[in-house]
């Protein structure tokens, strides 16, 4: 499940960087594009600007992640000590949000016309026509969205960790939870920073004298766009897997039913696929409720 959580985080940050990439190129009077669509084509032209924008965005989310851990670790210890029954409901609320967010991504992808997408893109370009605009500040809403996703996934991992040391003394629980929180944040966002800078690594290798380095660099530049696109798809699927898994584990009869169904089919992927399918169904339901609430609030 931790691997799925990592994919969700990478997908959320990649989404933020999509718009940052667009705005960076506009501010630099380059052809507008999105991260992942044209890394290989435009790596040379925008590598200097991207170096200024990508890492600050990842760093902004990483700092938010550290704040999340500062909130979650003490909260988890307090909840476990005084109201342990609240852990599962709180996790299920987070799981429901992940399912909703995943289905919202699908709905935006398949229900928006090409004209609507072009209009949104044009509005984004117009909004950052000023070359002096602070692009990271402009992206605060999306960065906060990535931090919110991190909060849910971090809560899940901390809750699982707490369960493994529940019988240990309080001092040991604090040490283990704090250590996991620090290692997880540094590891995850270090990996994310490496992924989003693959294009710069490829460009650097192409400028080396070694023929092997040049071939490797060109290969990275060609592969990077496809990898970013695949991460977006896999990350969205992971939202349903993680969110659906949380919802399933929170309802014992449903969990047992899926376990029995999976054992009867004998496939290692049957259980995860069933949980992801349940997450997709719940996400659709939550999304429809959200639409009804939004429409009821209209004048």
Q: Topology of this protein?
A:
Layout: H1 2-27, H2 39-82, H3 87-111, H4 114-127, H5 135-138, H6 140-164, H7 170-196, H8 198-206, H9 211-249, H10 252-265, H11 270-296
Structural write-up:
The chain is 85% helix and 0% strand. The protein has one domain (2-296). By secondary structure, it is mainly α. The chain contains eleven helices and no strands. Residues 19-50 have low confidence and may be disordered. Helix 2 crosses helix 6, helix 3 (87-111) crosses helix 11 (270-296) and helix 9 crosses helix 11 (270-296).
Summarize it.
The chain is mainly alpha-helical. The termini are far apart. Pfam families: DUF808 (PF05661).
Distance between the termini: 43 Å
Q: Residue-averaged pLDDT, rounded? A: 73
**Major sheet: size, sense and barrel closure?**
none
Number of contiguous helices: 11
User: Any low-confidence stretches, pLDDT <50, length ≥5?
Assistant: 19-50
SS-based class: mainly alpha
Task: From the alpha carbons, calculate the radius of gyration and give it in angstroms.
Answer: 21 Å
Number of strands: 0
What gross morphology would you assign? globular
* Number of domains as seen in the coordinates: 1
List the helices and strands in order: HHHHHHHHHHH
Transmembrane segments: 71-100, 151-168, 174-196, 231-252
InterPro entries: YedI (IPR008526)
Pfam families: DUF808
GO cellular component, one term: plasma membrane
């Amino acid at each position: 499940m931790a691997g799925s959580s990592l994919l969700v985080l990478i997908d959320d940050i990649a989404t933020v960087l999509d718009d940052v990439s667009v705005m960076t190129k506009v501010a630099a009077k380059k052809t507008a594009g999105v991260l992942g669509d044209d890394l290989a084509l435009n790596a040379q032209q925008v590598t200097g600007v991207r170096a200024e924008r990508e890492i600050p965005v990842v760093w902004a989310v990483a700092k938010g992640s550290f704040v999340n851990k500062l909130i979650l670790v003490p909260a988890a210890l307090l909840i476990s000590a005084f109201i342990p029954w609240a852990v599962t409901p709180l996790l299920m609320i987070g799981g429901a949000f992940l399912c909703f967010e995943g289905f919202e991504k699908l709905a935006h992808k398949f229900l928006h016309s090409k004209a609507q997408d072009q209009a949104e893109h044009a509005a984004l370009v117009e909004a950052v026509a000023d070359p002096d605009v602070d692009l990271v500040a402009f992206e605060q809403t999306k960065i906060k969205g990535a931090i919110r996703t991190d909060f849910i996934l971090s809560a899940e991992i901390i809750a699982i960790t707490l369960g493994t040391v529940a019988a240990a003394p309080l001092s040991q629980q604090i040490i283990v939870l704090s250590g996991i929180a620090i290692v997880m944040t540094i590891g995850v966002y270090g990996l994310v920073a490496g992924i989003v800078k693959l294009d710069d690594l490829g460009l650097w290798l192409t400028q080396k004298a070694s023929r092997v380095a040049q071939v490797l660099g060109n290969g990275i530049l060609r592969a990077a766009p496809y990898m970013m696109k695949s991460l977006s798809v896999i990350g969205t699927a992971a939202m349903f897997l993680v969110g659906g898994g949380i919802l399933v584990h929170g309802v014992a009869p449903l969990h047992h039913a899926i376990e029995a169904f999976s054992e009867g089919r004998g496939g290692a992927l049957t259980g995860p696929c069933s949980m992801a399918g349940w997450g997709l169904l719940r996400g659709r339901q939550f999304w429809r409720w959200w639409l009804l609430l939004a429409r009821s609030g209209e004048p």
